[in-house]
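User: Hello, can you help with two protein structures?

Assistant: Certainly.
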Amino acid sequence: MHKHLLAMAAAVQARAYHIGAPGSKWGPAELSQWRAEHIKSRPYDDDVVKVLDSLRDEYDVIEYGTLTYDGVSHKLYAARSKDWNNRPKVLVTGGVHGYETSGVHGALRLLQTKCKDYAERGLDILVAPCVSPWGYEHIQRWNYDAVDPNRSFKRNDPDACGSQEARALVNLVRNHGSDGWACHIDLHETTDTDESEFQPAKAARDGDVYEEGTIPDGFYLCGDEKNPRLEFQRAVIKGVSDVTHIAPADPDGTIIGSKVVADGVILYDYTALGLCGGVTDAPLTTTTEVYPDSAKATAEECNKAQVESVLSALDFLLAERSWGPAVKALGGGMP
């Protein structure tokens, strides 16, 4: 028994994060150390804002808030189809986790390519390509306060949102009407650093013991367990499979510990977890997960997979005739 306890203690020590004491939540000193270790590594203004500025002739580019951390401010922008006119509404979000690069660049690529075509086919489309600029610049999952924006959304109460990023996006959505949202695609990645950095850091921050997980090799979706719409999820998976490979289930039938309910599809409770995917009442919602660290994928392929996931979702929406009461109440407007 003594040897067993020593082995357990050694395993915990080996997996302990370098900030904080095992079993103790972070305080101000630990947060300050974490902040000091992360420097700006890429420019939000050049990579995101300048691209949006170049698209102003094609879209209404909206400033929907400002994030300010330690005296440094980032303005938040979204692009909206110019013919916005009370038709079925689509929300596309990227960069809720700023370090997930293809979520940001996939959303921008969508705007640069086929997004306008779908707006002309009868949809009002709103794209927020980089919800977390500080996270983007510092290549971090969390924001400056070591808060995960994608666990802090409260759709019906912006003031209760646990991050500036979530609060600003909730207000943006509300300003475009609480009804009539037909579809929301939230663009994410699962990376090797989820297990090498962010999960150990989360355990340390919360005073927990890190338990090693697995990283799926390939693309997968996370639907809303309260509204799974598996036919919709399957349509997105089918479209993306032409661009990149779909993640297989682990031997126990799970992906990242959640039961696989269809090829490449797992479910989370969006609202209970405070996920961005629950920011609207849209009947069609999904969260993409691209794997950029795969030996079988490139950065370009990941960006294309994000774009294809949106296009497949919109194709399904345009072909579907049962979007739910919120969309049916709009009456016409669809081709």
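That covers the first. Now for the second protein you mentioned:
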Amino acid sequence: MLRRHLTLSAAAALLATSVSAFAEYPEKPITIVVPFAAGGPTDKVARDLAEALRKPMGGTIVIENVGGAGGTLGATKVAKAAPDGYTVLLHHIGMATSPALYRNMQYKTLDDFEYMGMINEVPMTVIGRSTLPANNYAELAKWLDANKGKINMANAGLGSASHLCGLLFQQSMKIDMTTVPYKGTAPAMTDLLGGQVDIMCDQTTNTTSQIESGKVKAFAVTTAKKLTTPSLSKLPTLDEAGLKGFNVSIWHGLYAPKGTPKAVLDKFNAALKTALKDAEFIKREEALGAVIVTDARVNPAEHKKFVEAELNKWGPVIKAAGQYAD
């Protein structure tokens, strides 16, 4: 009886210590892992969010870039990290597309993470070289149909936003194009500007300035609703242009290792909701063409449901294209 009493007392003491420790969280810097190189759109979102999170979290937040393998190396690092709230992942749509692209992943998207809430969505645009004969989407569709087998479509590499959008665009158009992958958006855009490739589908964060300068031609946006950005507001959506149901945006969310204490997750989610209302953060995201998530997907459960739906959406598209990496 005495031994049982001592065991229960020890357990109670351990629980009290644990609760007390997490009540004081964070006691050291929190690392947000970005699974891509510094300077890209996802890195920019992470650094802007870190600034907005510092005050509501009450601690230091640092960014660690762990690029490679389409974002899976950084995601793996977080999946295997200690579940203590000090290492979290900020990832984009690749969270839902990597399982179909990579056959030897070291984590399971739905099983190995705690979902913490979504951050934003970034629209995409279909653009073409400035010398393309077409001047609007209707003319582009006719040109694509008349040049089957001769069209080069650039992307920023396997699993990139432009690669995924390009796959869905080709399938929706029922036109096979020669896919030209690059090691990043910059070289892909350089060749589009130089006329070495014909078209590309990429995020507004990468295309808006080129569209505004007249260096590329813009034909449509990929979201269900038209955009309000002045230089993009006159572009039709692909849905209203005839590709019914076409709706693609690049979203970002936060994830923690499986088993992270609920008290930590709750505090982080509350801080995230505060950060998403931060005026400076909103201003910076709007400048990138991004839309802050304000619906139920800022909550962990709805965030996870959304990613599961995206897994089901993109898996068949990627498998039908037969494009995957070892």
